[in-house]
Amino acid sequence: MNTEARDAKTREAIEAFPIVRWLRGYTTVHNAMGKVVYADCPICGGKRKLGIYRQSKSGTKLAVCGRCKDGGHGQGRWDGVAGLPAFVKLLEQCDWRAAFKLIHELSEIPEAAWSPDRNNAGPPPLPDNCLALGDLLNSERGVRMLRERHCGHLVAHSFLSIGGKYHERVILPCYQNGVYTGFEAKATWSTQEPKSLFPFAMDTRELLYTARNWVAEDKRLALTESILDAETFHTLGKNAVGCYAGFKAEQVSILLDMEIEELYWFLDGDAWDLIPKGLRHTLPFFENYLVPMPATEDPNSLGPEGCDALWDQARLVTSLVDHMALTEEWR
Ligand SMILES: [Zn+2]
């Protein structure tokens, strides 16, 4: 299946999408001509708070609402930042397929001949022009990064991209329950933005990363935000997943399919206030445990020993009130 050709058509359609015309169906647009289209946010009503970049590095035409992003204003519908397809899906209240269909229709760029349904397309292949990290010197930046971040065991399974869109990024293949789902292209130096890139055809909302030492019989897991966070649990012999930068409702069904029973919430420390949003979805199905993650840390920065110590302090929560009580006690 030629995912790249589909991507090219979709990117072209996003590029040509008439933001202003579409947005006027929902709200007042204030600046229709600039590099950023400003409008009243149709979610929170904030005056001129919504900006949509005509061109953004990720090629997704980023939509950002400063007010929704502050937290508490997005009505639980979004966090204030979304690529164009996700933003179209949000306002149109439709599924992915319908969102992409609309983008192609309004752009007047036809879809590639085969189905644009991401679920039918298969996972995106690893990029061309990759070197196996295992073949490189220990002094190579990408190798050093993984070793310094408690993930030396990934060196044998990861790659360095040397050209194209992912140039000088470490390519971390993604698996879910042993099945390949795509990859994360991770920055290797501090000025590279964004820190993480995923192939366009990979819908991370509907995927989870399961760590390489996954044990299917173990029904407990650490719920983390990223691959390196999840892999930090490698030496502890504990199951861990990465939920790709924030837990989403769609990921509940994956956990149910894996017959998980206990979730240990190890989101980044600065995401403490987002935990209730996730708990709303998980409380009915799992035993949920919270840990006192320091505000400026994440599992990877704490390292395996730090994570182990937090796991021992985990507390069962059975309602959002319990989260409030722990906020009083821990934050
Ligand atoms: Zn808003």
Description:
The protein has helices at residues 3-16, 19-23, 66-69, 84-92, 96-107, 118-121, 141-148, 227-231, 252-257, 275-282, 299-312, 320-330, and strands spanning 29-31, 36-39, 50-53, 63-65, 81-82, 130-132, 159-161, 169-176, 179-187, 196-197, 209-210, 220-224, 240-242, 262-265, 287-290, 315-317. It is of the alpha+beta class and 331 residues long. The chain has 3 domains: 3-107, DNA Primase, Chain A (Alpha-Beta Complex); 130-194, no CATH class; 205-330, Dna Topoisomerase Vi A Subunit, Chain: A, domain 2. Strand 9 (179-187) and strand 10 form a beta hairpin. The longest helix is centred in the N-terminal third of the chain and has 14 residues, at 3-16. Zinc ion binds at residues 41, 43-44, 46, 49, 65, 67-68, 73.
- The Rg value, from CA coordinates, equals 21 Å
- Strand proportion, as a percent range, falls in 15-25%
Ligands (ions, cofactors included):
zinc ion
The CATH class of the largest domain is: Alpha Beta
Which CATH architecture of the largest domain? 3-Layer(aba) Sandwich
Low-confidence spans: 114-119
Give me the number of helical elements. 12
Strand order of the largest sheet: 11-13-12-14-15-16
